[in-house]
What we know:
The chain has helices at residues 29-39, 58-63; strands at residues 5-13, 16-24, 66-73. It is of the alpha+beta class and 74 residues long. A three-stranded antiparallel beta sheet has the order 2-1-3.
Amino acid sequence: MAQEKHYRIDYLLNGSYKTFYIRAAKMDNAEAWHWATVDAGIGQLPKYRTDPINKLSKPQAEKHGITDVEWKTA
């Protein structure tokens, strides 16, 4: 298993500031947007770790009120 790191993700949900921490093997902008949608209750989590899921893109997330997603190593 790859070495996992802790990340902090900040975003706005309908104008309200939200922040959370996550441990993951890799993080990029697409992953941060996906995890922001999951934290907001819009995105999906797989039932099992190996199950495929449809990740929401930035434009799809913005339609649900998620904006200004930023991430950094915690």
